Amino acid sequence: MLNIKKEECTGCGLCVKVCPFDAIHLVNEKAEADEKCTLCGACVKVCPVDAISIERKRVDPSKFTDYKGVWVWAEQINGELRNVVLELLGKGRELADKLGEPLGAVLLGHNVGNLPEILIQHGADVVYVSDQEILAQYTTEAYTDVIAALIVTEKPNIILYGATANGRDLGPRIAARLILGLTADCTGLDIDDKRQLVQTRPAFGGNIMASILSPYTRPQMATVRPNVFKVPELDTSRKGETKKVDIKVNKAAVRTKIVDTIVEMEEGELKVDEAEMVVTCGRGIKDPQNIDIVAKLADELNAALGGSRPIVDQGWMKHHQQVGQSGRTIAPKLYIACGISGAIQHLVGMRTSDTIVAINSDPDAPIFTVADYGIVGDLFKIVPALVNEIKRVKAQK
Amino acid sequence: MKIIVPIKQVPEIAEVKIDPETKTLVRAGVPSILNPFDEFAIEEAVRIKEQLGEGEVIIITMGPPQAEEALKKCLAMGGDRAIHLSDRAFAGADTWATAYTIAQAIKAEAPYDLIICGKQAIDGDTAQVGPEIAEILGIPQVTYAVNVELTESKKRIRVKRETDEGFEVIECRFPALLTATKGLNEPRLPSLMAIMSASKKEIRLVTAEALGGDQEQYGLPGSPTQVVEVFTPEQRTGGIKIDGTEDPESAAKQLVEWLLKKGVI
Ligand SMILES: Cc1cc2nc3c(=O)[nH]c(=O)nc-3n(C[C@H](O)[C@H](O)[C@H](O)COP(=O)(O)OP(=O)(O)OC[C@H]3O[C@@H](n4cnc5c(N)ncnc54)[C@H](O)[C@@H]3O)c2cc1C
Ligand SMILES: Nc1ncnc2c1ncn2[C@@H]1O[C@H](COP(=O)(O)O)[C@@H](O)[C@H]1O
């Protein structure tokens, strides 16, 4: 229920402006909400005198069956979908089919072009599109307002977000607004015999795995680690529906302002947390000039290039290239560590990779305890030899 | 300027082991530390206070009695006083219930200007508690801060935030919540003097009843998520290890052959 304390309301009208549903009006200079109110919460946070509050009750379990459909947040940046969105459509399709429910994609942005078709061709049945100038760049508040309001009106059963920087910024905000369970950084998703979403994720630095349910709330929500699920095959003949979302966000609802955007990724650079193969180097590389030696191996394999923390701390690589506890947690098909000792803080970020190769001159380096294939030796000799060998094999093919 | 820093005591994951028999976490003997990301948060709060020459830094934790150790460290790093939310009723809280509990304590401190959390706690790695606190309090947030400065007017902050592609610089008014990540600062090592004087600072113990709020939202009963199973993943053991010191070319060749055979490349 929306409570407006009349004594405290100053009639400033800010809530009227930010209401996405046009549900609040000033009556005798006091705010009043009508039946169009969805309890989305946009007004609560802008009230300068805290006169508005929401009394939220968790969903009554007998109403759970009203919640239908699996949704994926279709995160895009500058008109390009993140890879994890397509991965989630693949997994989401599987979950939706198990439940016999539709798969939806929620697309926010400005001038989104043909993205709805791409989402449909990767498995979405419905694409909810909110196309407004204020959504051109991600902001926590505008995106929360639109998605929370859409959840309240459409009642999905499950929502998946990529565990990207913005996905992990947005998910908890929506969860807190609607009092929903949210499981972070999942690596496994399934439906159990009670039709609940079983969310599996690593904890304690990957030492244990936990399976988590959200038995008391709907929708069930999870952020999902990139590069865990496969991108489904594109089906250009697939048809689906695009629904325009009529939820307006007012400027006053966004209290942060992006004053600068600094892109450090280079054109065509592969991301360590998205690439199929990753080659990294550590302090064994000794000098920033030598990074080129390892970069050549990455190039030859079409792998992303990364490093251990000291390499990033010294400014030899960018922060988005750091693998480990205070950097990225990754699980590529192939991980090659060159001159990395394998401290626990590094291992927790890469030890779930499918195949691990280590090159290190110290036979007792802890990295060998997790490596499927270890070469004890000098990286300055092994890595160039490796590049030559791969070139030779490629030429033979 | 009133700055609130929620911190968590976590097990040193480097020391966490799995019991090979029972396949469960061996917690006994594992030292507890202040969550590394929270060190950045407290350091930044203290720096802002020092820079302004006025203000108060309040540390809050929700946790068992021994979490007091972590609070003491924060006080030695320059916090002014601490609030320890400790009650069996808080046990088993998931991120939502944790955020709700901490938000209740923060509300009691209103008005405040800034809340600085760590980016994530290294035991659960969720990074959810900060944004959830911000939403419950109805204030804006900037996550993954690597640089924080006050604007010329001191009425707003300018925060450089890590993104997947690089950084964003965001301006935001007070009150706001930030989450701190690596690169924000170099946390100080408290001097002996600081440690001694910290022992005189206030640590207020608060129970669920004293905190007020909706008692049903605390702890396990207030948590929307439920852990139903915990298991240990296949532990990795080292595989093939060859010596490439004498003949690097042959070692490289063997590796490529192996990768091809496995179908990895
Ligand atoms: C809170 C916290 C968070 C952290 N987060 C991270 C993180 O996210 N990521 C991370 O990586 N670290 C992290 N660390 C740091 C971590 O503990 C280690 O210090 C770091 O991983 C070591 O990096 P390294 O292996 O490159 O360097 P070193 O440990 O110095 O290892 C260098 C290795 O190179 C080998 N070597 C030297 N010369 C050669 C040669 N010619 N050929 C082959 N091998 C050679 C050596 O034998 C050695 O094993 C964190 C630490 C803390 C306390
Ligand atoms: N029990 C707690 N008490 C106080 N602060 C906490 C607690 N749990 C989490 N936090 C704060 O929230 C941040 C993120 O934690 P998490 O969401 O658990 O990864 C931490 O770095 C702390 O600043």
What can you tell me about this protein's structure?
Chain A is of the alpha/beta class and 397 residues long. Chain A contains ten helices and 22 strands. Chain A has three domains: 53 residues, Alpha-Beta Plaits (2-Layer Sandwich); 193 residues, HUPs (Rossmann fold); 120 residues, Rossmann fold (3-Layer(aba) Sandwich), CATH 3.40.50.1220. The longest helix of chain A has 18 residues. Chain A is elongated and about 80 Å long. The mean pLDDT of chain B is 94. With 265 residues, chain B is of the alpha/beta class. Helices cover 28% and strands 29% of the residues of chain B. Chain B has two domains: 221 residues, Rossmann fold, CATH 3.40.50.620; 33 residues, no CATH class. In chain B, the strands form three sheets. Chain B has a nine-stranded mixed beta sheet, sandwiched between helices. A two-stranded antiparallel ribbon of chain B has the order 2-5. In chain B, strands 3-4 form a two-stranded antiparallel ribbon. In chain B, helix 2 crosses helix 5 and helix 3 packs across helix 4. The interface between A and B is large, with 99 and 88 residues. Bound molecules: flavin-adenine dinucleotide and adenosine monophosphate. The site of adenosine monophosphate has 25 residues of chain B, from helix 1, strand 6, helix 3, strand 8 and helix 4.
